[in-house]
């Protein structure tokens, strides 16, 4: 209580000390008068008011009441605003960069505007007693020196003028010469060639802070570009009106303004008028870097934008800051997104529409181990540095070897690199766009992959809960739509951040040269070779035939592989779903499928997969399956693992393909798959016995494939009738040989003994554990990976029960 009382006394003291003249609405401030908080000068037409206002008045007019009452100090400003308009709209601020503040928040009782003895207009802060501090001054050097001759007048155009009390032709200062962000009718934009005064309009720092921001509007030095809009700090001009010196130009064809350019010996400027003084209208440079013309609509009690330049918000230089991708919907709302691996540098500023800080790396770069992340579907950043490079790999090398290089692109055989912050990367508004390869740390890349797993799993779960494939597809389309608001399915190709693209049929027809180069085919359709419009990505396009089966396979494929990515899973680049056309687009694998390399002994070049390549393939496939089964929260069962569905890229890295039979099931594996899936020879016994189907069916099939990789021959039973009647089923022979310790004779004879016996034994053990009849005896794919890598010792597998039966049967046949 005593503290409050003391406070009250100080307030009273303040009131007594400031001798306040009676102040009615008036447009003139004369010597000896003072304007305190709450007082205003009002222009004679009543349109404009001058006085003090606080940051509270700005946030108050914000539609969102996000104003935090926790800010310890209130900022106060001297300014001019529209007097009759209920939405607080300042048009000039004297002290935008240096607000008047007071920690006690009672400053409003102590600041006042008056004419100083030297004829300057000043804001004084009464510290106490007779002490006064000048906190703002008009800083006129040629003032009258006699305050009795000086008045400050607020004109009907919103101009605060310091002039001679009785001779209005003597003007010492005017607010129109020191503009803020608002270009009012009748004010000048441009320079005085003699005094050097240059009237430049500067945007606010953010939605609620009027301090100088990033964007400037002025005239260019040679006065031949018209009004120019530029990034103040870098002077990068990103819009110009074009020159005009004839009167009555209305740039927006709104009928509301009439511009005139003036270029004479003394001045170069633009000025505009409105047809009617009763119209309230302004032109301003926005926080977003656009110039906007607004007119007050009385009937709606709101400002209407009648003019915007540049129309496309992403054309504003550096609008989203470094390491961002800019996008906009219908040229309307700006949206800034951090590139992957980056986070918003200053979320507080970002929320207030100040994106200039952009995004920062989640983890610092380490030149030696950095990776490149493709950022597809963009228009490339500002100021590329062209480089000589033979091909895309060479271009990547150029960037990788320069630690300051942050990105590269290889487009139309041209290599470009960037250093620094990658400004102005925008989501491409035309079909396709370019691919930017962004340098990020290996750690961030990994985090991204893990993260992707997570986010896609959500979709998979939702999809599997929904149960219906149609809904899965719908969800996927929604994702693609939401991420490609400007193109969606309408354009020729689109791509979302995950890399899934939707293609138009006509585009794919063109890319595959009218489906002329057939790579292969299966039950559901044919696969064709194609080339994307970037001229470097070769693709395999699967065209599904047979309306019903095709549709089913299409859905299974898109909803499983479409949502996940792994080095050992074939990458679904996109799909086409147009009327009855169903096409799937994959990255093309140079070395085709595994079966061709294992079994086609008579194949043209006669090359044999060497042992280490076989091991690489075995572990790769195991990793891919392990990821499908365990990497996602929902289990994806491939259901059709066989050499035909294992593709090999240029360096024989295996990729699991053909997810047409895949099933997404819950973690509890309780779901029973009713439809028969898979290929005879690789089918787990539970398919036939009608047991519950789990991911262990893939383990079984993988075991069968492992045996084929080792032996280079099919597991399928063969009947020899040459010398004696004899049935051979390789797995049965193999397990006997394994038990007998004779593994070398199991291994593909084409290797001519060039293999590691230890590894061969390990692989065979794994294989036989995988093909145990009881699914609970089979290892998980994770265990398989560890076993293949030698990290996990395996016992000698028992003879699988079904084999024992087969052996018995064979013996009975023979005898
Ligand atoms: C406005 O102020 C001037 C100067 O103090 C004074 O001469 C004039 O009478 C005032 N007008 C009104 C309407 O109060
Ligand atoms: C600013 O806000 C205060 C408190 O809400 C109000 O009294 C004052 O009239 C406002 N000033 C302007 C210029 O709107
Ligand atoms: C903010 O201030 C308002 C009134 O001034 C009060 O009702 C509200 O509780 C305050 N909020 C916080 C978080 O202090
Ligand atoms: C408000 O300010 C107090 C004291 O400075 C601080 O402890 C508190 O966390 C702030 N609250 C919010 C919501 O910012
Ligand atoms: C006024 O200023 C003088 C000199 O700057 C200083 O000695 C005095 O304490 C001040 N008075 C108050 C009330 O602040
Ligand atoms: C200004 O006018 C006041 C009273 O009107 C007078 O006392 C003062 O001397 C004058 N100042 C000058 C510099 O003429
Ligand atoms: C004072 O200087 C300004 C420009 O600096 C000029 O526009 C104005 O006419 C000058 N006023 C007088 C009274 O000389
Ligand atoms: C323009 O001014 C005239 C009077 O000069 C008035 O009748 C008319 O309504 C005004 N037009 C607008 C759009 O305010
Ligand atoms: C743009 O954003 C504003 C406010 O956030 C919203 O009212 C408006 O509907 C949006 N416009 C479009 C085209 O989305």
From TrEMBL:
What family, per the record? Answer: Belongs to the protein kinase superfamily. Ser/Thr protein kinase family.
Biological process (GO) annotations? recognition of pollen; response to other organism
Q: Name one GO molecular function term.
A: carbohydrate binding
Any one GO CC term of the record: plasma membrane
* Protein localization: Cell membrane
Q: What is one Pfam family matched by this protein?
A: S_locus_glycop
Catalytic reaction annotation: L-threonyl-[protein] + ATP = O-phospho-L-threonyl-[protein] + ADP + H(+); L-seryl-[protein] + ATP = O-phospho-L-seryl-[protein] + ADP + H(+)
The UniProt record lists the EC number as: 2.7.11.1
Q: What is this protein called?
A: Receptor-like serine/threonine-protein kinase
How this chain sits in the membrane, per its record, is: Single-pass type I membrane protein
Signal peptide residues are 1-24
Query: Could you list the residue ranges that cross the membrane?
Result: 456-481
Q: Which residues bind ATP?
A: 542
Query: What taxonomic lineage is listed for the species of origin?
Result: Eukaryota, Viridiplantae, Streptophyta, Embryophyta, Tracheophyta
Query: Keywords of this protein's UniProt record, alphabetized?
Result: ATP-binding, Cell membrane, Disulfide bond, EGF-like domain, Glycoprotein, Kinase, Lectin, Membrane, Nucleotide-binding, Phosphoprotein, Receptor, Serine/threonine-protein kinase, Signal, Transferase, Transmembrane, Transmembrane helix
Superkingdom as given in the UniProt entry: Eukaryota
Q: Residues in domain Protein kinase? A: 513-795
Residue ranges of domain Apple in the record: 367-442
Q: Which Gene3D superfamilies match?
A: Bulb-type lectin domain, Phosphorylase Kinase, domain 1, Transferase(Phosphotransferase) domain 1
